[in-house]
Amino acid sequence: MKLCSIASGSSGNCIFAGSETTGILIDAGISGKKIEAGLNSIDRKTAEIDGIFVTHEHIDHIAGLGVVARRYGIPIYATEGTYRAVLRTKSVGKMPEGLFRPVTPDVKVQVGDVTVQPFSISHDAADPVGYRVESQGKAAAVATDLGFYNEYIKDHLKDLDALLLESNHDIRMLEVGAYPYHLKQRILGNRGHLSNEAAGQLLCEVLHDNMKHIVLGHLSRENNYPSLAYETVCSEVTMGDNPWKSGDFHITVAKRDEPGALLEF
Q1: Which residue in 175, 170, 188 sits closest to 231, CA to CA?
Q2: How confident is the model over 61-107, as pLDDT tens digits?
Q3: Residue 6 in 3-state DSSP?
Q4: 208 touches 159 (CB < 8 A)
Q5: From CA 167, how far away is CA 107, in angstroms rounded?
């Protein structure tokens, strides 16, 4: 399997996942031009993408969806609630007829030799999901925009080879920052985002000896730093009630505005 963050952050998200013969995008929250450039950097083309799986309708996840779908006729996979919300987002433009493929949490979807399983997440959106992707005995997941996690979430993140996990904010930076009170409460609430500490704690719950890649993503521009997210998560892993230290795993931070490395496993 292959996984690559084309862009990940509060200003735009797009993740490539797939196999040698099948490629999907999880979200298209950047421009079509940036999506094409990101895919080209890993020797792929937007025209070759077999499906776009949308987590939810916030603009940092769908900004380029309409352009890419119209230009290349790529099927769009999303929950019914999410797609209805996308249709109401005028900036995305008119969505092409016949490309929508509804997904249901916990019901697997087959695209080529890749199996995609949506799972419900808590976020202030219509019907948001994360995605677990499997092919040829390997598994990866993208889990961002999590207001909180529970046993259900942990079950869907078990036995992974690679995980892109939200590490959105540092709690202290958020609390003393310039955001208005209501926005701070939204981010900290059960339909908001995972803090660095919470990301590390969740990671401790799903680590195993064969985990090959951990990518921290969806960092806030205003309330986090890549180095702070990395150090906080690593500290949680090393100090947590588990047999591992952070150095036992390949942990990186996704870049906000440019592609990361192509992970192969």
Answers
A1: 170
A2: 999 999 999 999 999 999 999 999 999 999 999 998 999 999 999 99
A3: strand
A4: yes
A5: 27
pTM for the complete prediction? Answer: 0.97
Question: Is residue 160 a contact partner of residue 137, using CB atoms and an 8 Å limit?
Answer: no
Provide the β-strand partners of residue 100.
76
Q: What is the DSSP string of 198-248?
A: HHHHHHHHH--TT--EEEEE---SSS--HHHHHHHHHHHHHHSSSS--GGG
Please report how many Cα atoms fall inside a 13 Å half-sphere around the Cα of residue 81, on the Cβ side: 12
Cα 15 from Cα 259, distance rounded (Å):
9
**Cα 103 to the center of its chain, rounded Å:** 17
* Angle of the 196-206 helix axis to the 226-239 helix axis, nearest 10: 40
Q: How far apart are CA 218 and CA 29, in angstroms?
A: 12
In three-state secondary structure terms, 182 is helix
Concatenating the DSSP letter of every residue in 52-98 gives EE-S--SHHHHTTHHHHHHHH---EEE-HHHHHHHHT-GGG-PPPTT
Residues near 218 by beta carbon (within 8 Å), at least 6 away in sequence: 8, 9, 10, 13, 144, 145, 166, 167, 168, 193, 254
